[in-house]
Design goal:
This protein is mainly α. It is about 65% helix and about 0% strand. Helix 5 crosses helix 6 and helix 16 crosses helix 18. The radius of gyration is 22 Å and the shape is globular.
Length: about 425
């Protein structure tokens, strides 16, 4: 009888956790986690056995993530689905009939996806290896969608991640725009950006990390507005500390996981990850309790590294560069030029253009992307952020948002060419 009651209690707790914590993005996140768990099983030759082990282990990791979420699941009303999700679906439907013929997709993304579903990126006796061996994790995700729905409709994963990202944007805007219908319109305006819509029906991987980066930003901003309480430095044995500190630690660990997955998907996402992690480091320094904060930081950094580790080890053993082909000027792998292989078609030229590029880009759209058009969103955003930092200093959440925008924009210019697809965030 006692065992039965315990079992019923555990089942009730599981249902309660799923009902109060799970959102659309959490369902999608399971696939993200499964992809990296699968990479850890590359050492197993049997593909069937590797996936058999991956599915339940990824479910355990996913449940730990969901159960430790510091905030309950948000609810989105009819206005969001009618004014934000539905228009994005309509835009996707206009382009879904046309198969993706993008150069990078035909050149290596499809190959990466098919290979990673079956094992490692390179095969023994390979006669047609990939020429650009980036981490195949995002291509694994699109390959799953492509196998389930076919080549044309496989791109619907992009619409799903955009809806997920739009939901996070809705949560970020809730403290600024109170009216529900107006906020949904604002969310739609945010996502009606030319380069987001350009990729919505392709197998390019840049959209896939947007919801992860925005979720990490939202959790970081939530600490600013004390929605997630910060551990007080005094009296660590108090009941208040015991209640508040776990939420704070869980929040940072979740941010670290989201940023680690984003960076593993595309290394240029470090331009977002580094400013957010530095902001958390500053908060740790402010909070006090050095030993406790060091433990939290160490746990978060370990979680950040975990998604990157399997592929970095794999590619290092093959090439001598754990970030191959990036940063080869430092690692000097014989399989890639030591100058790094950056594309000189894009981005600023010279120091002053680099400093002013987020604003100047609107005047040089031909160096911003292949489309050679730009609406100037980032330029307006940077000007607005600088203005807000000068005149609106008391709102800590707005101040944090402005600092994040300015820091990520500068890093995007310096480290990611100032190129459109690397700066969608």
């Amino acid at each position: 009888m006692a065992l039965t009651n315990q079992s019923n209690s555990n089942l009730h707790n599981l249902r309660l956790t799923l009902a109060t914590r799970v959102e659309l993005g959490d369902v999608m996140l399971y696939l993200y986690l499964a992809i990296f768990v699968r990479q850890y099983f590359w050492i197993i030759n049997s593909n069937a056995l590797a996936w058999t082990l991956t599915i339940p282990l990824a479910a355990i990791c996913w449940y730990v993530y969901v159960a430790s979420k510091p905030l309950p699941a948000a609810r989105y009303g009819r206005s969001f689905w009618l004014l934000a999700a539905l228009p994005l679906l309509g835009i996707y439907a206009l382009r879904a009939a046309f198969p993706d013929h993008s150069f990078d997709v035909l050149n290596y993304h499809i190959l990466h996806g098919e290979r990673s579903l079956r094992g490692t990126l390179f095969l023994p006796g390979d006669f047609f290896p990939t020429t650009t061996p980036f981490n195949p994790a995002p291509d694994t995700l699109t390959a799953i969608s492509r196998h389930l729905l076919g080549y044309r409709l496989g791109t619907i994963v992009n619409w799903l991640v955009l809806v997920w990202a739009a939901q996070v944007a809705d949560r970020i805007l809730r403290s600024f725009v109170k009216r529900v219908w107006l906020r949904s319109v604002c969310v739609l305006v945010v996502f009606l950006a030319e380069h987001l819509l350009f990729e919505i029906s392709t197998y390019m991987v840049d959209l896939l990390t947007l919801p992860l980066l925005l979720e990490a930003t939202y959790l970081t901003l939530s600490v600013s507005r004390t929605e997630i309480p910060v551990c007080p430095p005094s009296d660590p044995s108090s009941a208040k500390n015991r209640q508040e500190c776990p939420s704070y630690r869980a929040s940072f660990c979740q941010v670290a996981l989201l940023l680690g997955v984003s960076t593993a998907f595309k290394i240029t996402n470090l331009t977002v990850a580094l400013p957010l992690l530095l902001l958390w480091a500053f908060r740790f320094w402010q909070t006090g309790g050095l030993a406790r904060q060091l433990k939290t930081a160490a746990a978060g950094l370990l979680i950040f590294v975990l998604p990157l580790l399997p592929f970095c080890i794999y590619i290092y053993r093959l090439t001598g560069n754990p970030l191959f082909p990036i940063a080869n000027i430092f690692f000097k792998s014989p399989y890639w030029p030591t100058h790094g292989g950056w594309d000189n078609r894009w981005g600023p030229v010279g120091f002053w253009q680099t400093v002013a590029w987020p604003v100047m880009v609107v005047f040089k759209p031909e160096r911003y992307s292949e489309l050679a058009v730009y609406s100037g969103r980032l330029s307006l955003g940077v000007i607005a952020a600088i203005t807000a930092l000068i005149f609106v200093r008391k709102n800590s959440e707005l101040r944090g948002l402005c600092l994040i925008l300015l820091a990520t924009s500068l890093l995007w210019t310096v480290a990611a060419l100032g190129y459109s697809r690397y700066g969608l965030y």
